[in-house]
Amino acid sequence: MSPPPDEVQIDPRIRQRRESVVRSRTYKRLRWAGVVVGVVALVALGIGLLHTPLFEAKVVTITGAHPNTPATAILRAAGLAGRPPLVSVDPGADAARVETLPYIASAQISRHWPDGVTVHVTERVPTVVMAGPASSWSTLDGHGRTLAIGPGRPVLPVLVVHGPTGAPIPPAAEGATVGAAANAGLTVARTLPAAFAGQVESVTVAADGTVSLALSSNLTVQLGTVSELQAKYEDVAAIIAHGSLRGARTLDVTVPESPTVGP
After folding, report:
1. Strand order in the sheet with 146-150
2. What CATH class is the domain 126-262?
3. C-beta of residue 103 within 8 angstroms of C-beta of residue 89
4. Most CB atoms within 10 A, among 151, 162, 179, 218?
């Protein structure tokens, strides 16, 4: 029986070729699907492996002197107290949290695979103290950051800052920075020369921004503004070294190289 006239006859070889092409395409799709599944499985396995105890931050080393900041506080701030997976340690963000600790000036964190972390810290230098409320004393660094607050006065020069009304301004909270009115006094406190720094008992900033020093010898040094401080320091050091202060109570070096001594 012959096929209907409108039915197209396909050569068996062409049919086989078409079937072969379809099978080849199917195999390629399956092969690519297998590759994708394999890659996903490997990534999942890798992520899972990185979160196992093999890659925890088990060896944490803190370097740099930090006598005023306990190691436990540094570890907590860095998020390393609980031995997190090393892949979860973010050196930049974790170091920034460590730098929020009152005494910490800078922190750098580095990872060491498979299980090590190094935290390097630099502490701020206590420079002055300020009287606070309820007989408390605040320790500040040379840029006005409050490092600690306690009942006893540390052996450091006292910083007294008078605001625009003449009333002394209080220190900032722990970890915060005192107001800009203190800048002149802080500049002096952190630049005092070794020649007489040990004799300075207090640094006072007047309402007009001028600065004076009270020395342990009961001598008051009027520095004026913070311009030409080096020349003013040289005047003070030279006069103290020559011992020409008998009976004097005031040393005025507001005009560099033209100091005056008075009662």
Report:
1. 146-150, 137-141, 126-131, 158-161, 200-205, 211-215, 220-224, 250-252, 260-262
2. alpha beta
3. no
4. 162
